[in-house]
Amino acid sequence: SPIMEELITFHDHAFMAMSLISFLVLYALLSTLTTKLTNTNITNAQEMETIWTILPAIILILIALPSLRILYLTDEVNDPSFTIKSIGHQWYWTYEYTDYGGLIFNSYMLPPLFLNPGDLRLLEVDNRVVLPIEAPVRMMITSQDVLHSWTIPTLGLKTDAVPGRLNQTIFTA
């Protein structure tokens, strides 16, 4: 999904900044440990103190701005093609396609005896949710009994299902 592409790009951006900072600190630490400190006029280095105070603030801003952009992109509300309501129960999910005549079905986890070779244990279900491609979908997620987490990792989606609360996420596959 486009949001997941943004998350991957942000991860690469933040990892590059973190790697550069780590190598710089490692270099400074190794050079401090391996060289003789002959210059003792460091006590009056206001310019250097100003730089190492302002530079981390600039780096934090350069990391925070793309993060805030992605945060607002994930909460962006488009005009969805249709809405699916997902209700978490203790051992299964109930899905309601509200725009299509109130189609309701339960999705139970398959027991290990019914798994085919290559199926993922604890992830395979008897009735899967069918989602369209390149159409905005609104998922309304709640729970009936306990806390749940509705997630599709490849789309960059993870929304909590909390009893008594209706959470919403919009995505395009």
Q: Concise description?
A:
This protein is about 35% helix and about 25% strand.
What does this structure look like?
- It is a single chain.
- This protein is of the alpha+beta class and 173 residues long.
- The chain folds into 2 domains: 2-36 and 43-75; 82-172, Immunoglobulin-like, CATH 2.60.40.
- The protein contains 2 helices and 7 strands; from the N terminus they run H-H-E-E-E-E-E-E-E.
- Helix 1 (2-34) runs antiparallel to helix 2.
- The chain is elongated and about 80 Å long.
- The relative contact order is 0.15.
- This is Cytochrome c oxidase subunit 2.
Keywords:
173 residues, alpha+beta, Immunoglobulin-like, 2 domains, 5-stranded mixed β-sheet, 7 strands, 36% helix, cytochrome-c oxidase activity, metal-binding, magnesium, respiratory chain, Cupredoxin
Q: Note the overall shape.
A: elongated
- Uncertain segments are none
Strand order across the largest sheet: 3-2-1-4-7
Portion in beta strands = 15-25%
Describe the protein's topology.
Blueprint: H1 2-34, H2 46-74, E1 82-88, E2 92-97, E3 103-108, E4 136-143, E5 148-152, E6 157-161, E7 167-172
Parallel strand pairs: 1-4
Antiparallel strand pairs: 1-2, 2-3, 4-7, 5-6
